[in-house]
Write a structure and sequence with these properties.
By secondary structure, the chain is an alpha+beta fold. It has a single domain, classed as S-adenosylmethionine decarboxylase (4-Layer Sandwich), CATH 3.60.90.10. The protein is about 25% helix and about 40% strand.
């Protein structure tokens, strides 16, 4: 299925009569989505373009989000990678510093997706010594 068909399919679920507007309602709060900042320290495989792309695809799938596109850039000579996965439910980005074994991952998801399900995939692929996660509730209404 192409990305336009996926987007059309997702848009159909946003019908206000269905009562689903992609906002999260959890623990008495209503907000646009969960935004995780994930730091991977002591990580490996951070200069491998195919590995980074596969990790993004798998992590997005694990969250239940809809992948629309991935765009990655490989820097030389140090080998770092910066990229973003565009999602129907928002985005996931990664910036790697292989020379210091560090990667910064930014994951913002709205709706029924679970951003925390991406973390085990990132741990499996990059084998970090330490993971730090910060959560922000974006667009907090109540």
């Amino acid at each position: 299925m192409n990305s336009q068909a996926l987007l059309a399919d997702v848009s159909a679920t946003q019908d206000p009569e269905d009562g689903y507007d992609f906002y999260v309602e959890k623990d008495g709060l209503r907000y646009a989505g969960t935004h995780l900042l994930i730091d991977l320290n002591g990580a490996s495989r951070l200069s491998e373009l195919e590995t980074v792309e596969d990790a993004l695809r798998r992590a997005v799938s694990a969250t239940g989000a809809t992948l629309l596109d991935i765009d990655l850039h490989h820097f030389t000579p140090q080998g770092g990678i910066s990229g973003v996965a565009i999602l129907a439910e928002s985005h996931m980005s990664i910036h790697t510093w292989p020379e210091t074994q560090f990667a910064a991952v930014d994951l913002f998801l709205c709706g029924r997706c679970d951003a925390y399900h991406a973390i085990p995939i990132l741990k499996e692929v990059f084998q970090p010594d330490r993971v730090q996660v910060t959560e922000h509730k974006r667009g907090l209404v109540t």
